[in-house]
Amino acid sequence: MANPESSPTRLSGRVVERLVSTLDAFLADTGSAQAAVEAAIAVVPGEVIEDANAVLTFRKGLSYRDGLMIQVAWGLEAEEDFDHTQRGEGGRSVAQQLGQAHGARHIAKVNDAFENIGKNTPNLARGNMPAFDRLLGWMNAAPAVEREALFKALVAAVSLTARPVLPMPELARTSLTFHAVSGFLDELLKSPSGGSFEQFATAAFLGALVDQFGLGGVGQLGVKTKNINASDASAGTAADVQIMRGGMVEEAFEVSANDWRSKVDQAIQAARGADLSRSHILAANGSDLSGLDELLKDTTVDVSVMEITAFLRVLCGVLKKPGREDALRRLYDNTDRLQSDVTRTNLVVELLSSHGLTA
């Protein structure tokens, strides 16, 4: 068989096009996706279907899932014999583009499948997952009609895992006045979210402010937040939201939709963990500071407490309209990526529209 590394680079572009266009077709018609899975069962040998299911359901198998999709698509696009056990020229780029496509379509993704299963060698059948290896070998001898049926079934099955999330709408920049954006934030924070809206809005508006003043970039300031269900320790963060300079924490924020007093111990620990002299609490009732001195009497950490709505209004007021647009996009992205409740992400979209912020 021909060496895949000698195939023309333009072949990789055709592979991406086949993968993404097929995925989008199934996303637009879930009925056809179900039909593709059933059609493959009727055409493809049973043991091949079993191996494909093993790859798709493998607990840590997103890289093998994407790798399998890419290899079968590559063989179908190749103009000459293709050894499916070998990564094609440009395969890393294809894997990265497929990962981006999955993320944009609200499908669980891996950034680059071949970084995990073929980083240092084009050989993909390495004995780490027998079902995957068997499928690559089967493809080398299988007729095109069976490989085509398997390809469609794989992409169809993946399309059916997409979360029903509303896409981020185009924003009307001229409409992003302080009053309009503040009204959106006020209503958003009144919606129960387990503190996720508070945390993600804080990170989004701080991040936009850093960029507006040209302070972001490599070696400069950046804003980091964590999955809403992860503890600070498990996420490897000092606090809910952090302003970073490289790998060092500059500021730490604990964010809560509840009484700020429950966050004092975490704020103190956040400062100590990051070797800071101070930390911040943003909470729904942050204007009432009664009892703060008593809670801090045994520590030298300077803990500030602020009402979160007022804090966000200050950030919104300082941001110009392009910065507010950036902040709202970050808020959507944080809500989509860092928590699993689709209704919360969709609420962000719905409120953007109802407050007249969309084009």
* Overall strand count: 5
Q: Which ranges are low-confidence, i.e. pLDDT below 50, for 5 or more consecutive residues?
A: 1-8
Largest sheet: 5 strands, mixed
Helix and strand pattern: HHHHHHHHHHEHEEHEHEHHH
**Contiguous helical run count:** 16
Question: How many separate structural domains?
Answer: 2
Helix content: 40-55%
Percent strand: 5-15%
What is the gyration radius calculated from CA atoms?
Answer: 25 Å
Q: Report the span from N to C terminus.
A: 53 Å
How does the overall form come out from the CA principal axes?
A: elongated
Mean model confidence by pLDDT = 92
Strand order of the largest sheet: 1-2-3-4-5
The SS-based structural class is: alpha/beta
Question: Can you give a write-up of this model?
Answer:
There is one protein chain. The protein has 359 residues and is an alpha/beta fold. The protein has two domains: 4-159, no CATH class; 173-354, no CATH class. It is 54% helix and 9% strand. The chain is built from 16 helices and five strands. The chain has a five-stranded mixed sheet with strand order 1-2-3-4-5, sandwiched between helices. α4 runs parallel beside α7 (130-141). The N and C termini lie far apart (53 Å). The model is unreliable at 1-8 (pLDDT under 50).
